[in-house]
Amino acid sequence: MSKTLPAAAGDLATTHPAIWSAYADLGAATAAAGDLTKRERRLVKLALAIGAGSEGAVHSHARRGLAEGVSERDLHQVALLAIGPLGLPRAVAAGTWISDMTEK
Q: The pTM is what?
C-alpha cells in the first residue's frame, strides 16, 4: 500500500492502516455521492487544494490528474482561475506547484 504513496502518506498508511482504510473509504463515498465525472472531481479537488494553500495536496492532485489523463493545460487553467477569488500571489504559487509535477 505505502509503496505507491508519497512518503508522509505512505508512512501513515503503514503505521495506521485502519485509519488509512477509513480515509480511503470516505473518499470513495464522497466520490459516489453525486454525478461529477472522475475528471471533474479531480479538477475540483485541485481547486480546493489551491484554495487551502496546500502545496502537498496541489502536488497530489496534479500528479493524479496527469495519471488520469488530465492535460497540463487544464491543470494550469485551474491555477489561473484562482486569480479572481484568491489573488495573483496564491494563483502564481499554485501554478509553480503544478509545474513541479508537470515538468518531471
A: 0.88
Q: How does pLDDT run across 1-31, given as a tens digit for each residue?
A: 434 677 788 899 999 999 999 999 999 999 9
State whether 14 and 54 are in the same domain: no
- pLDDT tens for 64-78 read 999 999 999 999 999
Question: Do 19 and 41 belong to one domain?
Answer: no
Around 96, how many Cα atoms within 13 Å sit in the side-chain half-sphere? 8
What are the C-alpha distances in Å from 50 to residues 23, 31, 33, 78? 21, 19, 23, 9
Q: Are residues 61 and 82 in the same domain?
A: yes
Domain containing 46: what range? 36-104
Please answer whether residues 14 and 1 qualify as being in contact, where contact means their C-beta atoms are separated by less than 8 angstroms: yes
Number of domains forming the structure of the chain: 2
